[in-house]
Design goal:
Elements (H helix, E strand, L loop, with lengths): L2 H4 L2 E2 L2 E2 L11 H10 L1 E4 L2 E4 L14 E2 L4 E6 L6 E6 L5 H14 L6 E3 L5 E3 L3 E6 L3 E3 L2 E3 L7 H14 L5 E7 L6 E4 L12 E7 L2 E7 L14 E6 L3 E7 L1 H4 E5 L9 E7 L6 E3 L2 E3 L1
Parallel strand pairs: 5-17
Antiparallel strand pairs: 1-2, 3-4, 6-7, 7-18, 8-9, 10-13, 11-12, 13-20, 14-19, 15-18, 15-20, 16-17, 16-19, 21-22
The structure holds 2-oxoglutaric acid.
Length: 282
């Protein structure tokens, strides 16, 4: 066959002759098996074992039964969850839910991103405590007038957890579209290793946790451990130890019908350390 007929037609002109790949000779193969590399003409191809072992995304764990769970041992120390479903009886939880839904001073808070642009939180909130609470560059003013139902619940939660709380952040998720994004409750005003007691009323929502990535993963959460905790009506969840330092949590939006849910997070707030010249001055 003529050289011209062997060539492909490309946009009305003849393509350049196709270079046939050169097969390695018997001598090439013999020298490759001796040296550990393949040589073909001027190029050589070498096989290297990948430096990084292949990493697997860990399967998400689910915690749904009552109990104490040590969810990690590092890097800051032990992180622990205590799950107490049925902390409130069904009838008392029903009654408290309707009262708090109707009577708390719910409002939508405006927060600010790093660059200063404002956004409305996708949920309603209110705050109780002798001290104000600042997060996402916006402050909830002190409010020492505890609703009587909240004052009763605070005592019950303190008894169960053997811990004193001076503040309460209330969240109202109006439906499945309301949410709270990934964060940890690690503001300086909460002190080191804060204990957070979270009481849920109303429709069940999934509380998710993800471990902070290793420093070498530079903020990439692909391979971190994950946990789901469905929080039903009347359930108390305690987060203890290094849970805020080593994990983040969220309540994601859900794309099927969800009724309203109230979440009460009891906290201990300390006076804010004064910042001076970029340092904390106590
Ligand atoms: O609604 C919840 O269960 C979580 C609320 C929460 O993460 C928070 O208030 O910081």
């Amino acid at each position: 066959m003529s050289d011209k007929r062997q060539r492909a037609r490309v946009q009305g002109s003849w393509a350049k002759p196709v270079q046939k790949p050169q097969r390695p000779s018997v001598q090439d193969v013999q020298s490759a098996s001796a040296s550990g590399s393949w040589k073909s003409g001027p190029q050589s191809f070498e096989f290297h074992q990948p430096a990084d072992p292949i990493r697997k995304v860990p399967a998400e764990k689910v915690i749904e039964n009552a109990g104490d769970y040590e969810i990690s041992q590092g890097p800051s120390g032990v992180s622990r969850l205590r799950l107490i479903p049925g902390f409130l009886l069904q009838e008392e939880a029903d009654w408290m839910f309707s009262k708090l839904l109707a009577e708390l001073p719910w409002s939508q808070k405006t927060n600010y991103r790093m660059m200063g642009d404002a956004y409305e939180e996708p949920r309603l909130t209110c705050w109780y405590g002798e001290l104000p609470y600042t997060y996402s560059r916006s402050t909830m003013e002190a409010n020492a007038q505890w609703h009587p139902v909240l004052a009763t619940l605070r005592l019950a939660v303190e008894q169960k957890s053997a811990h004193k709380f001076n503040s309460l952040l209330c969240n109202l998720y109006r439906d499945g579209k309301d949410s709270i994004g990934w964060h940890s409750d690690s503001e300086p005003s909460l002190g080191p290793q804060p204990i957070i007691a979270s009481l849920s009323l109303g429709d069940t929502r999934v509380f998710s946790l993800r471990k902070q990535p290793l420093p070498e993963d530079k903020g990439d959460f692909t391979y971190v451990e994950r946990i789901r905790v469905p929080l039903a009506h009347g359930t108390l969840l305690l987060m203890e130890g290094c849970t805020q330092a080593d994990w983040q949590h969220q309540v994601a939006k859900e794309y099927h019908d969800r009724g309203p849910r109230i979440n009460l997070t009891f906290r201990t707030i300390y006076p804010e350390p004064q910042r001076s010249g970029g340092r904390f001055v106590t």
